[in-house]
């Protein structure tokens, strides 16, 4: 606590000196949340309390579920209102109204989706109980603003006032998660469609297998892609293909693999744990920022007049419900499904009227609406959005035809508040029934109950599709094309009490390929390397403990790159090293590599960089013809490209070799040299190229860029961290485990929960950053909040 006090006192001093007056410091202090005392509240039927432990983690208690929603809104707004505001504005495309001209471009892209209009339809479908809880939450958030001595500090810096919370803003927060977890632009599908136009079908299919030897589904086996097509199909060394490849535009292929907005989640049945109880683990991987995405809390309804609740885990500021955690009888966690939730629809304009387009039922007019973007300190910007029955126009193809985006997020049927049902679920079946009816971005859900059972299914609404290829743009003009409705709950696949006693998901295929693709489609699900490492670690534990679960979450062994290290050592033989001292130095570090993505390891970074450069160069050679035809399109290897890549570098078919090089060995060594040159440019010398020097945490507050003198206090410390994307401990510079949860339902006092950042978004608060250091170090911290240090009572009052 002494360190925290010194920290916020130092911040106060810096602000005081920078502003030249004590008034600034006092103003900031006045915006700190009230932690103790009583506040009269006309909207409450009974007393509610917000108890905070020494780290600021709240236990929120009330006598009814409605009052609990009010108190939750109150606590969220006290501690995180600026975050709530940013999330609703991001979904609605209203950031420029708060942040000014720099946010206009983002707003223009987001306004296309018209989420405020969809929100109204979602609320119209809500049940009376759901609507009542959203209204109570909204009242609580606004009452916190009204009762505060001063506005939240961010609005003081921005010299504006916070806009009140509205019921529809809760739904906008849900839409902000769609934006995080789904492709909202259609760019990936368009690029894939263009690549398919150019490449022979056999080569395209080879480059996009549905799986690889790394697959690790719970049911169904691993897949192996087809062999490389022969020279009669495609020959990079033959004219005129060779000339096209040699003269293709510069590559825009990203060197780094895309960051999967995903997660790990698994469960172990009671039959395979030391204490004879089921265990659930979940670490959701998202962008790391301040304020942090989740808000940990315990939510308790103590009334005897309605069913009691005791919920603990993480909430999302802006919503009145628990997102992941336990209710004492059941625990649940999520991973992103990476099903196919967006389609690009080729819109065929009516040749007789450009204001209309063709459908199966005839010609229809485009819906045209004007969207006015308010700009703080500037002139409003008006954009025109054209929409079809399938969705808004987001792009045009090479023939100039409009492309509409069909996205589940645009359909009000896909979003609801049924996650509230998890609060009262008592067993696996009840939880999965609720999940199959709930709305939101479609997720894998893993559950464990207090009787020791475990289960898996999907949460979210899934569209049915006609028989067409949904991975590339297609016309929906003909009858019986496009989406055909919504899957019924009884159609959802499930796994309950598997024979192995374990379940695992890690953004990969979980069940057999045929069922998976028929139900979800392919939205770019991940390579199975991470899932396989989790699976093998779970199966190796005959009698697992909660500590074992945390150890798997922190597992930074780089098993995926082990074969690449061995292969690269073979490539860098005596002949390759002769006259190349840098290659020889690199080989020395590779030989000493620890086998982990350790922050002090140079060998790991070298192996990783070499593989990525080889991957990019091989992919660029295969797609050179497509780059020549579509120079503005960014083509990116699929998540499953590791399979064909490994075949190519080990089999080395001459007809698929980059025509710039005489042999595969020459091409591969050139890639190695490019990777080493880049490392030298970044580090100055190989000895300084530790993994941690690249993988240094950058967790920043959005206002720190505008307050450079306060960055030390606003941002989390820059720390080299272990972990990477192909292992359980997923970690990047601004991406990673947004929480680490381990729990056995009914034994929450033995559970763990780690979270970066801290509960309160106020740098003068002693809770700012509380718990962050434990997350950095991977130290187990209790799931349940500790002994209350501060209690704020919300007391019914007559208005």
Characterization of this structure:
This protein has about 800 residues and is of the alpha+beta class. It has an eleven-stranded mixed sheet, covered by helices on one side. Helix 1 (about 1-20) packs across helix 2 (about 20-30) and helix 17 packs across helix 20 (about 600-620). It starts with a helix and ends with a strand. Mean pLDDT is about 95; it is low at about 1-15.
| Strands ordered across the widest β-sheet | 1-29-2-3-6-7-8-9-18-19-23
Helix content: 25-40%
Give the oligomer, counting copies of the same chain as homo and different chains as hetero.
single chain
Number-wise, the strands total: 29
* Poorly predicted runs: 1-17
Distance from first to last alpha carbon: 40 Å
C-alpha geometry: globular
Please count the helical segments.
Answer: 26
Estimated radius of gyration: 27 Å
Main sheet: strands, sense, barrel = 11 strands, mixed
Please report which band the strand proportion falls in: under 5%, 5-15%, 15-25%, 25-35%, 35-45% or over 45%: 15-25%
Structural class: alpha+beta
Determine the mean pLDDT: 93
């Amino acid at each position: 606590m002494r360190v925290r006090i010194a920290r916020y006192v130092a911040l106060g001093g810096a602000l005081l000196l920078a502003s030249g007056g004590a008034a600034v410091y006092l103003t900031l202090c006045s915006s700190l949340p009230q932690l103790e005392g009583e506040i009269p509240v006309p909207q409450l039927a009974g007393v509610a309390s917000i108890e905070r432990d020494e780290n600021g983690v709240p236990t929120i208690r009330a006598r009814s579920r409605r009052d609990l929603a009010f108190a939750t809104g109150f606590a969220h707004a006290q501690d995180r209102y600026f975050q709530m505001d940013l999330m609703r504005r991001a979904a609605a495309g209203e950031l420029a109204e708060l942040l000014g001209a720099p946010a206009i471009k983002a707003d223009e892209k987001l306004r296309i989706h018209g989420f405020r209009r969809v929100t109204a339809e979602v609320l119209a479908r809500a049940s009376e109980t759901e609507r009542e809880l959203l209204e109570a939450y909204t009242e609580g958030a606004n009452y916190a603003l009204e009762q505060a001595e001063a506005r939240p500090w961010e609005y003081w810096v921005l010299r504006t006032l916070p806009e009140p919370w509205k019921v529809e803003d809760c739904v906008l927060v849900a839409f902000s998660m769609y934006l995080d977890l789904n492709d909202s632009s259609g760019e990936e599908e368009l690029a894939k469609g263009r690549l398919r136009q150019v490449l022979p079908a056999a080569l395209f299919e080879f480059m996009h297998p549905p799986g690889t030897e790394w697959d690790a589904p719970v049911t169904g086996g691993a897949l192996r892609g087809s062999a490389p097509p022969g020279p009669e199909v495609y020959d990079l060394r033959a004219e005129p293909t060779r000339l096209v490849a040699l003269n293709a535009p510069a590559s825009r292929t990203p060197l780094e693999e895309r960051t999967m907005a995903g997660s790990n989640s698994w469960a172990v049945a009671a039959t395979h744990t030391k204490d004879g109880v089921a265990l659930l683990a979940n670490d959701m991987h998202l962008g790391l920022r301040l304020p942090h995405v989740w808000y940990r809390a315990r939510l308790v309804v103590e009334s005897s007049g309605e069913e009691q609740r005791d919920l603990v885990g993480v909430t999302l500021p802006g919503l009145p419900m628990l997102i992941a955690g336990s209710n004492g009888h059941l625990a649940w966690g999520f991973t992103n499904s990476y099903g196919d939730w967006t389609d690009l629809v080729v819109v065929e304009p009516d040749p007789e009227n450009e204001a209309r387009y063709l459908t199966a039922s005839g010609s229809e007019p485009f819906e045209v609406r004007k969207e006015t973007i308010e700009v703080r300190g500037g002139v409003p910007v008006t954009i025109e959005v054209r929409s079809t029955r399938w969705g808004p126009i987001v792009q045009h193809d090479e023939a100039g035809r409009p492309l509409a985006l069909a996205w589940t997020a645009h359909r009000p049927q896909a979003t609801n508040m049924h996650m509230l049902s998890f609060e009262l679920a008592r067993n696996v079946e009840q939880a999965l029934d609720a999940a199959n009816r709930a709305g939101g971005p479609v997720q894998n859900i893993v559950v464990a109950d207090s009787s020791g059972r475990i289960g898996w299914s999907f949460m979210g609404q899934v569209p049915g599709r006609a028989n067409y290829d949904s991975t590339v743009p297609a016309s929906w003009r003909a009858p019986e094309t496009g989406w055909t409705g919504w899957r019924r709950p009884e159609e959802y696949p499930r796994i309950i009490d598997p024979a192995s006693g374990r379940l695992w998901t890690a953004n990969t295929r979980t069940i057999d390929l045929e069922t998976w693709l028929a139900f979800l489609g392919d939205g770019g699900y991940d390579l199975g390397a991470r899932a396989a490492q989790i699976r093998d670690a779970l199966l190796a534990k005959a009698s697992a403990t909660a500590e074992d679960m945390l150890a798997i979450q922190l597992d930074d062994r780089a098993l995926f790159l082990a074969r690449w290290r061995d292969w690269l050592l073979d490539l860098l033989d005596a002949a390759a090293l002769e006259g190349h001292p840098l290659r020889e130095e690199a080989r020395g570090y590779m030989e000493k590599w620890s086998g982990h993505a350790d922050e002090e390891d140079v060998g790991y970074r070298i192996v990783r960089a070499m593989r990525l450069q080889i991957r990019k160069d091989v992919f660029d050679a295969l797609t050179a013809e497509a780059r020549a035809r579509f120079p503005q399109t960014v083509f990116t290897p699929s998540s499953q490209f590791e399979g064909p890549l490994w075949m190519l570098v080990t089999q080395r078919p001459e007809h698929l070799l980059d025509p710039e090089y005489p042999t595969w060995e020459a091409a591969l060594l050139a890639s190695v040299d490019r990777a080493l040159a880049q490392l030298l440019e970044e580090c100055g010398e190989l000895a300084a190229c530790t993994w941690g020097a690249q993988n240094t945490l950058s967790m920043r507050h959005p206002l720190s860029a505008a307050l450079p003198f306060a960055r030390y206090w606003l941002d989390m410390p820059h720390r080299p961290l272990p972990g990477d994307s192909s292992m359980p401990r997923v970690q990047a510079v601004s991406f990673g485990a947004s929480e680490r949860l381990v729990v056995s339902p009914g034994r929450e006092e033995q559970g763990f929960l780690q979270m970066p950042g801290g509960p309160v978004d106020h740098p003068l608060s002693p809770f700012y950053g509380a718990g962050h250091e434990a997350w950095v170090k991977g130290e187990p911290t209790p799931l349940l909040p500790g002994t209350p240090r501060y209690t704020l009572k919300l007391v019914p009052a007559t208005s």
